[in-house]
Amino acid sequence: MHDPAPSTARHPRRHPPSRPRRPSARGTTPLLALVLAAALTACGTSDTKAPATPAGLTAQAGSATTVHVMWQSPAPSDGVTSFLVFQADRLVRELPADKTMTDITGLTPQTAYAFTVRARDAAGNTSPAGAAASATTPAAKPEDRLPPTAPARTEGQPLGPTSARLTWAAATDDTGVTGYDVYQGDARIHTVGPGVTSTVLEGLRPDSVYTFTVRARDGADNSSPAGPAADVTTPPGPGQRTGTAPEDFTATASPGAVTLSWTPPATGRETSEYELYVNGRPTTVIQFGAGAVPTGRAEHRLTVAEPPGTVWTVKLRARLPDGTWGAFSAERRLVLGS
Hints:
mainly beta, four-stranded antiparallel sheet, 41% strand
């Protein structure tokens, strides 16, 4: 028996698996080409529209070495995230979008300065500068340590749902008043020049009670005590319900206690529940039980354990018949234990 002849058949050569080819523009279908073009266009899209230039720019010398700069914020639709304040062409402040005023310090007495403000959005777009606001610092009087007198009178009236006019009596100072600062609570919100005793405050909220005070400043940056407070209640805006804030709110401190008194809002029903804020934070809810709801003037007494001399600012708001909270009352400042 003969061995079988060796086979001459060859085994097929094994090739590595082919890699998928990337589509080329030449081999792409028209529909796929459109999809790819749209994707590339979307990836390259970016926000290139700059915010509007801040309006209402003012500059007022507060002392021999400081200038107070203020402006109005552009519309919320502009998406502003910060403001850039320039002295001439030099950036001197960068502030978050909720700040629309600043003090520029370290300046030279008897010197003219020009300021501009630009708005910037999240994409880095920056608005044009707009017209500059100028101010000249007065002469330095380093030995002046006597503050001006407090304005003796302050009056306010609403001009509409978002604005009010504030007027005050002129203050006096041995070296001259250089400006007046308007405060809402403990926050300075406006500054005007030395010869001004009236101003219009914009950007207020409808159906809200504001408590304003005014302080005078001199060239050495001495600030007077606050003048008497003026309450201003803005009316409701179009389509809003009538006023919902407690009226004529008072807060009186005595040893170990604080007595609150107010007139309930006219909602057409009994108001039995109020939320009390102390130093800007909700602290407690005041409730009047059935048969004890005041029909006229309401009063509530708080027992306090804080040490004498502690400063409180207090305000409250009412629970309305629909279950929501109404507008705040005026804010009152008091010193405990006195």
